[in-house]
Amino acid sequence: MDFTFTEDQLVFKEAISRFLMTEAAPEMLREIWETEAGRSQELHRKIAAQGVTAVSVPEAQGGLGMDDIAWSLLTQELGYYAIPDSMVDTAYVAVGLLSALPATLAVRNEILEQVVEGELRIAVAHSINPLVADVHLANRVLVEHQGEVHLVSREQTGYQDTGSNSSIDSSRRLSKINFVPTADSKILDAQDGAAVWNETLNRGALAVAGQSLGLAQRMLDLSVDYAVQRKQFGKPIGSFQAVKHKLADVVSGIEFAKPALYRAAYALANNDPRADVYVSHAKLTCCEAALVAARHGIQVHGAMGYTWEADLQMFMKRAWALNSSWGTREFHRQRIANDIFADGAAVGPRY
Q1: Of 87, 78, 57, 83, nearest to 13 (Cα)?
Q2: Which of 121, 175, 284, 319 sits most deeply, having the most CB atoms within 10 A of its CB?
């Protein structure tokens, strides 16, 4: 197995990072989140113009045809800059689902081409998530119903906005849907749809893992900057051993989580039969790294780190919210346990 990223993947990642550094500064995101929609169509278009929405779209539909490995890098950048759910759900999760549909399906090709152009938002309603992100602005919604794949408009979902109190992260827009399936809305039957939805679950969980790792790195950077600037007893608090230990724990968590993320992305991209367990491992380790970064970050900052004016709270709350998205910790632990304790499971490391 080769974990070395290609030059194209690394260059693309750096380009997106430089773009988001100027276009998605925390003060700009605060202004967007306080609007009624909570989203900026202009920012969405600008990100699309950088090629993000085209990453996984097949070349036949005008995309770049890149795989999950590229997204293991990009989701970290989207997490680092706290870009809203709709970008990842549309450009990665939904595109992965649509790409798995028969190429002869006209609506599949039409939607993929629209995603590349950046004019389309897609929400994904998987049964693993009781609430669905960004339905309120979605042009199309992919809905799971007893294993079937249904494609509907926002209005057809019968969605109900749960309001700002449904998530600790005020940037998240969650809705309940009351979907009634029809023959016209079904684009894939349950027999073929079950495998597609399982892959969608894995991509959703992998997207959360990547974003969580990016969030952990951002919270670490914010904490290091604060520890250098804030002084107590005439010295920067970063010079105190107790603070150093806290930040070192965060660094260790991030570095241990990265291989799990990349292994899961490789497994998913190459149809590894054990991709489920690798994805669950990645989500658990990456989310844990983010939770530790949040916990130690607030200890370094003190109570002010939780206030609206502080940047830390934006990334901390996103980490908490994503922790239970696309499968709770208990769900992913159970998937790993099922693999470890299965009859005939090999003892020792497996590759």
Answers
A1: 78
A2: 319
Beta-bridge partners for 148:
145
Predicted pLDDT of residue 96: 95
Identity of the residue numbered 166: S
Nearest in space to 60 (alpha carbons), one of 10, 92, 104, 119: 104
140-145 and 122-125: which strand pairing? parallel
- Quick one: pLDDT at residue 8? 87
d(CA 149, CA 185): 8
**Backbone dihedral angles phi then psi of residue 102, each to the nearest 5 degrees:** -55, 135
Integer angstrom CA distances of residue 179 from 81, 198, 210, 335: 33, 20, 30, 28
Helices (H), 24-157: 26-33, 41-49, 68-80, 85-88, 95-99, 106-117
Query: What six digits make up the tokens of 342?
Result: 């299965």
Name the nearest CA neighbour of 24 among 36, 35, 39.
39
Q: What is the pLDDT of residue 78?
A: 95
Mean pLDDT over residues 57-70, rounded? 92
The SS3 of residue 274 is coil
pLDDT for the residue numbered 344? 79
- Contacts made by residues 265-271, CB under 8 angstroms, sequence distance 24+: 265/68, 265/69, 265/71, 265/72, 265/206, 266/1, 266/3, 266/68, 266/69, 268/68, 268/199, 268/202, 268/203, 268/206, 269/67, 269/68, 269/69
Percent of the chain with pLDDT over 70: 96
**Does 232 score more than 70 pLDDT?**
yes
165: tokens are 């109190």
Give which of 126, 120, 32, 49 is closest to 83, Cα–Cα: 32
What's the CA gap between 261 and 99, in Å, rounded? 22
- Contact present, 82 and 318 (Cβ < 8 Å): yes
CA distance 154 to 123: 9
